[in-house]
Amino acid sequence: MSNKLEFISLFSGAGGLDIGFELAGWNCLYASDIDKNSIETLRQNRGTVYGQKVMLEETIIEQSDVREVNGRDILEKIQRKKGQVPLLVGGPPCQSWSSAGHQLGFDDPRGQLFKDYVRIAAETGVRWIIFENVRGLLTARGADGKPGSALEHIRTILLDAGFQTEVELLNAADFGVPQRRVRLVLIGYKVGDKPPFPSSTHAKISTESGLTKWVSLGQCLSSIPPPLADEIIRPNDSLKAQLSLIAPGSGMKSPGKRETTRPGGHWGYKQGAFIADTGNAARTVTASAQQDWIQDESLGLRRLSPRECAAIQSFPPNWKFAGKRVDEYRQVGNAVPPLLAYHIAVGLRAHIHATTVQEEVTGKTHSKLNPLKERLISAVHYTIKEERRNGESRRDVAPRRVSRLTLVGEN
């Protein structure tokens, strides 16, 4: 087993994970995605210099369907033998496990793609995998309909393939990303290779521990040039009148049946109808073109642009995105924040360098799954209780589609 810091990337998207790992000293040898705009994004940014790093310099970039990708073919293309590349990274499409995707999970073909991810991990002989997904996967239901059973099923499949797994929920804001974005990160490892999750560098409130306060949306936007004229999206007069009554940090509520555990009896805020609070870390950037609005002192009420959303996600300022505006929003919103990926990559790199004697893993397997952290188990139990209380009323009105808001300057 080689300890060279090299990795293979699947479901690469716009390159969020790849950027973070390369900045941490790893080299991406192969990147793949089925989306043509994402692949064009990677190709046009290959050779981009960020800091002292030439991005994706050694990367073979391919548009491909992971169901048709063979690990042996990847190894041949990158001129490596099985077991020589230590790491596989990627996040199989998360929409089927998200609330936006109505948590269809295994009933959605996208929910099955992780099996190909595991297959390629076995075919390439990697020692570690980094798997990122939405936080909803923690409590998603599997075939038995029980909250949490989908993740247990995924971890069991990985166990059968020789990977023990550790799971954590990481908030990107805790690592310097100007965004409150909580994602599930799973690290799969062979016997004796358990790596740590990164420690937070930031906190919502600065404490005596020395952690820096979260980076705010305002701080982020002040660090980049203002949007160009063709990047500005304004609301129509009707929507502008409604939004003018809303304070920053709030939005237009989505009507729904009253739920006893939800103050105000609503489901949340309508998509595309929220005024961002620039004094706080941004809300989660989604893959939708209906991003939050801001009250710009110079430009008035306007929507966050794709370039601003990319900055909120911590993409390099010179990273270009291919496609139309809607494609840019989608690529940015689906990405792993590069800065979060960087901290994960640094932790794994330190673990490898600190391991002076590698335990032989050939022929050894894990006998059973490690238990989840107590905090994560509690979240699953809460979901069960909340479902008992509000599940029937939720099923009566969901899935719900919020009508599209008409905008000025949207394309």
Low-pLDDT residue spans: 97-103, 257-266, 397-411
Number of helices: 11
Might you state the CATH topology name of the largest domain? Answer: Rossmann fold
Return Rg in Å: 22 Å
Please indicate the percent range of residues in DSSP E strands (runs of 2 or more): 15-25%
Reading off the top of the CATH hierarchy, the class of the largest domain is best stated as: Alpha Beta
How is the biggest beta sheet arranged? 7 strands, mixed
- Total strand segments: 17
Helicity, as a percent range: 25-40%
The run of helices and strands is EHEHEEEHEHEHEEEEHEHEEEEHHHHE
Largest beta sheet: strand ordering: 5-2-1-6-7-9-8
CATH superfamily of the largest domain: Vaccinia Virus protein VP39
Characterise the protein shown here.
One of its GO terms (biological process) is methylation. There is one protein chain. This protein has 411 residues and is α/β, with parallel strands linked by helices. The chain has 11 helices and 17 strands. Strands 5-2-1-6-7-9-8 form a 7-stranded mixed sheet, with helices on both faces. A two-stranded antiparallel ribbon has the order 3-4. It is globular. 41% of the residues are buried. Residues 97-103, 257-266 and 397-411 have low confidence and may be disordered.
